[in-house]
Design brief:
HIT-like, five-stranded antiparallel beta sheet, HIT family, subunit A, catalytic activity, alpha+beta, Histidine_triad_HIT, Histidine_triad_CS, 113 residues, Histidine triad (HIT) family protein, 2 helices
Length: 113
């Protein structure tokens, strides 16, 4: 598979990992948009939120549990943070592997752009 996130999960491409378990992998973004900017991705190759089904939907709750753990460990849980999932080309998705950006450590504006 030619997916950059699958290659990161498999160790073929280096990343600054902050968490891993049997279901997900989390790592810092290589082009951070905030002082804290990491991604949480399912290990299963799910293209986008459009691919969520009854069979794989449990991964979403697990991803949010991991995000909850990491924002507490990184100390951004009290100040606030943003969770972003881009879906499809017009939604800004640039990698065809579902992923969640977590940004914090600074004020975040709305709308994002």
């Amino acid at each position: 598979m030619n997916c950059i996130f699958c290659k990161i999960i498999n160790g073929e491409i280096q990343s600054k990992k902050i968490y891993e378990d049997e279901k997900v992998y989390a790592f810092y973004d290589i082009n951070p948009e905030a002082p804290v900017h990491f991604l949480v991705i399912p290990k299963e190759h799910i293209i986008s939120a459009n691919e969520i089904s009854e069979i794989n939907s449990n991964i979403i709750s697990h991803i949010f549990l991991v995000i909850n753990k990491l924002v507490r460990e990184l100390g951004i849980n009290k100040e606030g943070y943003r969770i972003v999932n881009n879906c499809g080309e017009l939604g800004g998705q640039t990698v065809d592997h579902m992923h969640f950006h977590v940004l914090g450590g600074r004020g975040l504006k709305w709308p994002p752009g």
